[in-house]
Q: What sequence folds into this?
């Protein structure tokens, strides 16, 4: 299945629930709504032509306008890759957990919660993960984060 | 102090060759300087240079420096690599577990002032002298084995110049 076939297959499967973004340089990139994430992920995994069985990465982005949560999916057997993106406004930074689809999302989502302050619903163990246990200085991957000993890179 | 440094020459000259005159201070500090057992504390790429220095080409052993895996047996801790804020309490704990006299070598830019992570890092401690007292700083990213050897020789020279009264005054 080529990249174009994969893109058309996903658009045909989900219709208006996905928006194809041309920005994806290597893999097809789709924007989806936050409430659709678990359903679309499960269907991508269970589709026999796609079988996205591997969550390669799950990360956050702070664009200074809103948050993005990016899912990089891979299919080991079909040799396919696809990226999903969810846009979350600052005042509603909440997303559903995809642990029920890929259990490996557990640590990624803890990291997302800890470093960006994006609340992950239905997560079984949303506790302190990478930062020190007594950390109380907020969410350090946010662009507006600051701390007493944090030295920002000077503007060029 | 001077006698023991010229030990091989003196031993030749003393008739019979069986007696060496020295002071407790000199022999004690000579012994300390020549058997600096160091605690391995490699957290980043500086540890690779530390390993290289310990291997046969640069041969740390000839300075009497042998690595120890436990702080109870170590006189010196060579902090080789980036210390994150989460690692900092562990470093302090290991330092506290070492028996006195104990020394600290800060190896590489990260341990001196945060190194390449000085800017824009929420996680890195900007210098280990916030955590433990440092005796010798070795700059470099990472320092070459020659630099590390020279730093260790500097530390040995410092140890040899110590006075017993330093310890009594609590200056160390």
A:
């Amino acid at each position: 299945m080529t990249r174009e076939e994969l893109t058309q297959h996903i658009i045909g499967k989900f219709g208006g629930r996905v928006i194809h973004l041309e920005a994806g340089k290597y893999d097809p990139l789709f924007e989806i709504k936050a409430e659709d994430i678990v359903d679309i992920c499960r269907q991508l995994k269970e589709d026999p032509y796609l079988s996205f069985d591997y969550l390669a990465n799950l990360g956050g982005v702070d664009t200074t306008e809103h948050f993005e949560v990016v899912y990089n999916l891979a299919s080991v057997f079909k040799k396919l890759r696809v990226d999903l993106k969810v846009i979350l406004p600052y005042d509603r930074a909440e997303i559903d957990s995809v642990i029920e689809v890929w259990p490996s999302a557990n640590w990624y989502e803890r990291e997302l919660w800890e470093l960006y302050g994006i609340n992950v619903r239905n997560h079984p163990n949303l506790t302190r993960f990478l930062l020190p246990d007594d950390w109380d200085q907020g969410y350090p991957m946010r662009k507006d984060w600051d701390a007493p000993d944090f030295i920002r890179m000077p503007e060029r | 102090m001077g006698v023991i440094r010229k030990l091989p020459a003196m031993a030749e000259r003393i008739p019979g060759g069986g007696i060496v005159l020295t002071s407790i201070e000199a022999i004690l500090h000579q012994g300390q300087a020549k058997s600096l057992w160091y605690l391995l504390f490699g957290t980043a790429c500086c540890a690779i240079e530390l390993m290289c220095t310990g291997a046969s080409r640069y041969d740390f052993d000839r300075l009497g420096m042998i690595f120890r895996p436990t702080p109870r047996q170590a006189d010196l801790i060579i902090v080789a690599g980036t210390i994150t804020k989460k690692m900092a309490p562990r470093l302090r704990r290991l330092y506290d577990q070492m028996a006195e006299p104990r020394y600290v070598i800060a190896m590489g830019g990260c341990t001196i002032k945060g190194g390449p992570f000085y800017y824009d890092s929420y996680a890195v401690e900007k210098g280990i002298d916030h955590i433990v007292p440092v005796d010798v700083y070795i700059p470099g990213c990472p320092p070459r084995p020659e630099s590390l050897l020279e730093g260790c020789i500097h530390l040995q020279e410092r140890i040899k110049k110590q006075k017993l009264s330093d310890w009594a005054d609590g200056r160390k």
In short: Chain B touches chain A at residues 85-86, 89, 118-123, 126 (CB under 8 Å). The two ends of chain B are 20 Å apart (CA to CA).
